[in-house]
Each structure stands twice: as C-alpha cells, then as structure tokens.
Predict the structure.
Amino acid sequence: MAADSSIGFVASDAPEAQKALAELKSRYGGTPPEQAETIVVLGGDGFMLETLHRYLDRKVSFYGMHRGSVGFLMNNYGPDGLNERIARAEPVVVNPLEMTARDVRGQTHSALAINEVSLSRQGRQVAKIKISVDGQVRLPELMADGVLVATPVGSTAYNLSAHGPIIPLGSDLLALTPVSAFRPRRWRGALLPQTARVRFETLEAERRPVTAVADYTEVRDVLSVEVRQTRDVSFTLLFDPEHSFAERVMKEQFAT
C-alpha cells in the first residue's frame, strides 16, 4: 500500500504500542508527526495527554488507538481501513484549562490541563483551602485531601474517582470537586459555567503545604492557584462513530 503523507504515528513505550507502530508504519508509511495532518496515537489515555501537550502548537487532529492501560480517549485498535476510519471519524474539540500558580517563593507557574487542575495536601495534615469563583468567596475554608476543577473530557478521570459528576460534551460546564472532604462534611462540589474563573488560596501554608497539578505539570508549595478555561488553545480528537465520545460518556453514567 502506498504511503499516506497526511498521517503520522506516535506510540508509547509499551510493547503492544510499539508492535502496533511497526505494523501500521509498514502498511501506511511513516510521515513525521511534525508534518502530518492527522496524528495517530498508539497507547493509553496518559500517552494521549502527553502527545496533545507535545504538539500543542500544531493545528492537527488526533486519532487515538488503544494500546495501553486506560483507553477512554482512544478508539479500538485495528490495522485495516485506517484511512477510511479517520475520514468518517467524528471530531470533538477540546479547550484546556489554564492554571496560574504562585508558590511560597513568590514564583509564578503557568500550565495547561486537558483533564483537570488538582490541588492536594503534601504532608500528613489535611489541606485548608479557600475557594472563590469569579471574584466572590464561595467557600471560606475547605478542609480536605484536595480539590480539583475538571473539564468535560476530564470528568471521567480523576474527577470520577473522587465521586464528581460526569459532564457530557456540549454542556459548557466545569466540575469543581473535593477530594475526601472533612469540612464542610456534606459539601460534594459544584457545577460551574465554563466561563468561570476559580481561585484557590492555601490557608496555613507552612503547616499544611499544598501541591497543584495541571494534568502532569506539578507545582509544590503553592499559595494560590487560579484556573480558567482558555479559548486560545484547542485540540481536535477523532472518534469512530460507533464508539463516539458522547456515547462513552453516556455508558459511563450507567456503569455498574
């Protein structure tokens, strides 16, 4: 089969992903991802996130094929008819969160998060965090292991493990979810509009240090963290119609 110059391949280090990479390159060619119109990602969800961050500046589509541990963002693997599958795939446009964190040394750190921005305690003591939304204090003191803001795409990841709500795509919402909340004991989080600006402030930072993470960018000893969704950056993920992302979200809500 002639090489397809519009498709590039990347794969995780997992043996299954590397085997799939060799098979697909032998059938469809090996266009460098830096030149491809569509990047086929072989691995799991973690590797997909790494790939999206790596090719942040490229206006291309990403078609995942599951060859890793978790594959919520991936399509089923199959070497046949790849061009046809990509041509009929349904696009999902994702706008990431932008995190701006200030640490105890006065340094400011910025990072993007496709799944979520999370804060968590660094030591043995529970974290104390003040939460403001759009400049108004909504929770003067949350005592918990942590708290996170998740996108619709990320709502099925860490957010779901923390018993946060699953958010269907197109709902224009973000999930604000506590992690093992101690006080207020009955607070289960909130759904926020995607335009919301969320600010976290660490209380008693010396005794109760907190780490902030945007996907896999970690900032330790944070004093404050601001989170908003950015429209300046977007990613396009491609999904097979028979296993669309919307259908996966629906099935996840009825999983037993």
User: Anything to note?
Assistant: The radius of gyration is 20 Å.
